[in-house]
Amino acid sequence: MPDRTQTDSKASGWPMTIPMWMLLGFATWTLLLLMATVGVYRWINILFGRASIASFRSDQLEGQDWYRRGTRAHANCVENLPVFGAIVLVISLIGATGPAVNYLCTIILIARVCQSLVHVSHVQTDAFVAVRFSFFCVQLVCFLALIVIAACHGA
Questions:
Q1: pLDDT (tens digit, 9 = 90+) per residue, 10-31?
Q2: CATH class for domain 17-154?
């Protein structure tokens, strides 16, 4: 049995799988979205003296429409990241692998990025909300499919 105290994934016997890469991608996207929307908006306002660093309240929506959409898109990523993380943890621990698992995890990340981009880059008309919701539904279906795979594999 490999020594699990090593930090190198190859030395420890824990290679990065596609689901792990997609989870890492999801986390990376969550941070990039935060920096590109909320971070840019706040730092520009702070650096140009339009707002103080303490003026941004977490309990109140404020700012331009794209900033509010960016804040909500980031929060939505944060809300769904633990769900994806729990699923990837379980499928990794029980050894549920294969093309279906890899494709579902890849689709989740692609749908998440598309959902966020639609949310942030467009005024939310009925058509854009429908597109955004469709990308969210794709993620939900993939989450459920992965849960079924995990349950069947673990039974």
A1: 556 678 999 999 999 999 999 9
A2: mainly alpha
